Each structure stands twice: as structure tokens, then as C-alpha cells.
Amino acid sequence: MQTAHAHRPSANRNQPEFDAVVVGAGFSGLYMLHRLRQLGVTTRVYEAGGGVGGTWYWNRYPGARCDSESWVYCYSFSDEILQEWTWTERYPSQPEIERYLNYVADRLDLRRDIQFNTRVTAAAFDEATGRWLITTDAGEQVWATYFITAVGCLSADNLPAFKGLETFQGEWYHTGRWPQEGIDFTGKRVGLIGTGATGIQVAPVVAEQAEHLWVFQRTPNYAIPAHNRPLDPEFIRQLKASYGEVWEIVRRSAAGLPIEPVERSALAVSPEEQRQIYEAAWQKGGFYFLFETFNDILVNPEANETAAAFIRSKIRETVRDPEVAELLCPSDHPYGTKRPPLEHGYYEAFNRDNVTLVDVRKSPIEEITPTGIRTTDGEYPLDIIIFATGFDALTGPLTRIDIRGRGGVALAEKWVSGPRNYLGVAVHGFPNMFTITGPLSPSVLTNMPAAISQHVEWIADCIGYLRQHGYRGIEATADAEDRWVAHANEAAEQTLYPRAKSWYIGANVPGKPRVFMVYVGGLQNYRARCQEIASKGYEGFSLTPEAALAVGAG
Ligand code: NA7
Fold first, then answer.
1. Can you identify the CATH homologous superfamily of domain 2-60+92-156+393-551?
2. How far is CA 378 from each of CA 165, 166, 360, 365, 366, rounded to the nearest angstrom?
3. What is the pTM (predicted TM-score) of this model?
């Protein structure tokens, strides 16, 4: 029951009203808008960037490329789009993905409902009317029945608080906010901080231009060769003729990739057979090394070590200077428990005369000076610093918005000890809010468009159901939320994932709670669970009839 004392955000009540507000116009926001339109739901999308693309709008750093193969890193809902669009490379570059998303936006005429260059700063639930009041950085306010976040998992950049950064007289950039016009590194002395998936893409490209590149490495990573290549017309022809089968395999898979599960332990084969299997996957390139070799790499430390040792042997074969090779060999975490990067000439780059690896584990960065970076070993004079230091992942994009649910409770406050939600998509106390690829959903452990599509379709179906059955409100129950959080934690504990200090667990941001924030149970199992919940009339949710809210309104 609503009462006269229910918490209400303060606003002029004559603000425009939409059925739905969607935050973000990347892969998720665009598809969400399309599905909502099909339901006849009036929608406004707010996008902070000047164009569509989300991740692929902001991350335009040199070498930016997707680690999923292009032909599945896309929407599967439209046969026309699948047939009309032709990818040119095995791993799509940032400009190509941005072009693709622009093409989709035009093809579906999406732009007229998107307001660009506008960041949503706050969203507050009004208990009396069951609506959300959304505020933007332009001071604009609108009402919406449904508040849907399509903010991505890796959109809140993490810039470590290095002492002295403000004194630096050169240029500096974070990879996740790269300037539109690009940067010319010719003749420049460049420092790159960070050797995650991003730094590993940046290094070989910048090395080709810069006078000298210093790579400041704190933790080495296990990078697998991508073996990128142009796609030939015959491959494209066959793909387009059999796309249906490809998506079937994707739907059955744990990671949203067209990879069939292997039923083979790394410890059940002879060392020679093991080596051959790893070698074949290494030659194939990409995530096949993790998913198509053995089924116990992510659960059994001994099995994991066989993969890790193989990768180290490859690094030692590739990098000529044995000391540098040793520094590049990871040993502090099991392979795959940090996001496994793909590389395009990363290890070879350290054979160049103009590339130097700096071990900031041994000699930490003390400060940034007006002319460069000073570690405990001395100063490196630099013209440009690149921060490939990652993101306040998964929760950051949500908690950086002032989202307030029932009783004015802030989402950031509710999640102060880690994210709590139901299915990663709904939060108790935050009715009619849906978080596409939110924390505790499969998200970043999958090929993102697969997880995004599943969430968008489930949310659209849910809203369709509510409208059809005369409900205006839906909210996850506290009990369902508790059970989901426990289940997600338990699933993570059964794997090696929690053994790494990764951004999956919040370890990359000082002060962030150490909670494993992704659902490891597999996208195919997760999808089945979500479908079952929907088919039971949204089990674990409480639904509010239209009439109940009308009483409280006014
Ligand atoms: P990541 O994977 O979080 O990598 C960030 C890198 O920056 C990593 O090597 C960090 O070392 C390093 N880092 C962060 N802070 C510091 C400080 N203070 N000093 C030195 N080095 C630091 O981010 P990415 O952008 O590479 O990748 C994010 C995802 O985007 C990627 O996984 C894909 O899904 C796409 P650390 O390992 O913490 O020692």
C-alpha cells in the first residue's frame, strides 16, 4: 500500500513523460529501443556520447579491436541485417564496429528517439505514482514508467590517483575516453601504463609509430594470439547461407560463442596429446584455447597449470631477451581467471629496439612529474602517457548515476558491500528498473551481444507481459534477491576465478568490495532459468496492478 508519507523525488510534475527511458545507445540501448518500439512503448534514449556505439564510441584507441569474431559479435534478431552487413576481418576493429552500429541505427531509424551528448545523472523512484524521475546533465527532467540501464559493463574508466598527474606537461589519455581526432605518435616518447586486454592491443600499434615506447607492467597477462585475417568471399557466402545453425550453437553455449563444449580433462591425456591439443588451439587463435581444449582449466588448478605452462613456453619462444621474456611470464594467477587478452604482435613488439618493458611491480611508479614518470628506479622522460588502466567494472557505470529507489535509498548505498540483485537484471527496492547485463549476470564472461540480446528480449517480454496483464509495477522480492546472490557466489566459488585479483572481483579499484560480480553458471543455463521464471508469471517478483498505484497517486 502506498501512503501519504511515501518518499517522493522533488520535481515539477509537468515534466514530459515516456513509458520508458533507456540510458545508453550502445549495443544494448539500440536493441532495447527497437524492441520497445515494437511493443508500442514510448521511449527516450539518453546517450552521453555524440554518436551511437557505447564502448565502440569511446574506446577508439590505436589497435582497438573486439576479441570475439566479427560474425557473431553482432545482432542475431534480424535476418535482413545479417544478410546485408558484411564483416571484413575475423576480429572487427573499432571503426568497423562503430560503422556497423551506425548502420543498424539508420536501418531501424533509431536516432529520432535518442538524445545525444546528454548524460543521465540521476534517477529517482516516485512511490506515489510508481514512476521514475530522470535527470540529465543538461538539467532536463523526464518521467518514465520503466527505467532501463544500457550503460555497459566497462564504461566507467579507472584512472589511478597517481601523484603529480596534474603537473605533467605532455599529453595524457585514458584508452576508454580516446579523442575523436586520434593521436599522432610519430617521433614521440610514449609511456603505456597497463597490460590488460587493452594495453596488449595498444602496445604493438603505438610501437610502430613512436620514437620509443615504455610499457609499465605491474602484472603480466596470458595473451593468446588472435591470428586476425581478412574474411574471404567464400567464407562470407557460406556463413550467410548457414547463419541459423551458427546462432543455434551460440544459444547452446556457455560463453555466447559458436564453440561446442569439450568433455575432456587436461589431466586425462598424455603430455604429448596435451601439447598437440594446446598447439592446435594456439594455431587457431582466439578463445578456442580456453574453451575448446579441456573442460577443467577454470576449475582445477593442476589442469590450469598445464595451460599456463604452455603459454609461458610460447612467450619464451617469442621474446628474444630471456630476462624480458621472464618478466612477461605470468605466475601470480591461474590462466583465464583474469579476462584473457588476445594479442596481435604484442610479444614480438618487445623484440623491437624502440620498446622497453618496465617492471613496476619491482619498482613502483612513485609519481608523475612535469616531464615523465618516476619509478623507484628513476625517471622516464615522456611526451605522451597512455593510461590503459581499465574500468570501475560492472557496478561503476550504475553507481556513478545517483539512482534512488523506494524510500530514497541510493543504489550505491545498497551495493556498498557488493552488488545485490535478482538475475543481474532487477533490484529489490528499485521497482520497474532493469539493468541490461548488470552485475551478477553472465555479461563479460560471454560474447557480449549474445548476453545483451538475451537480456533485452527478456526485458521486452516482461514489459509486454505487464502491459498485457494490467500491471504497472514489477519488483524483485528480497527473498529472490538473497537467493540469487547466494547462488551466484556459490557458483563462482566452485571455479578458480576468485583466485585472481581481477576487475571481475573489484580488485582493481582501491576500496571496492571484493565480491565476484559475474554469473559464472553459463549463458545457456542462465537463459533457461530466466525463461522458466518468466513462464511461471515472473517468479520471485511482486507485480503491482494498475489500480493499486492509482490509489496512491495524486
Ligand atoms: P584491465 O584488464 O583492468 O587492465 C588494467 C591494467 O592496468 C592492468 O595491467 C593493471 O595492472 C594496470 N594498472 C591499473 N592500475 C595501475 C597502477 N596504479 N599502476 C600500474 N598499473 C596499473 O583493463 P583493460 O582496459 O585492459 O581491459 C578491460 C576490458 O576491456 C578487457 O578485459 C576486455 O573485456 C575489454 P594489474 O593487473 O592490476 O596489476
1. FAD/NAD(P)-binding domain (3.50.50.60)
2. 17, 20, 11, 9, 9
3. 0.96
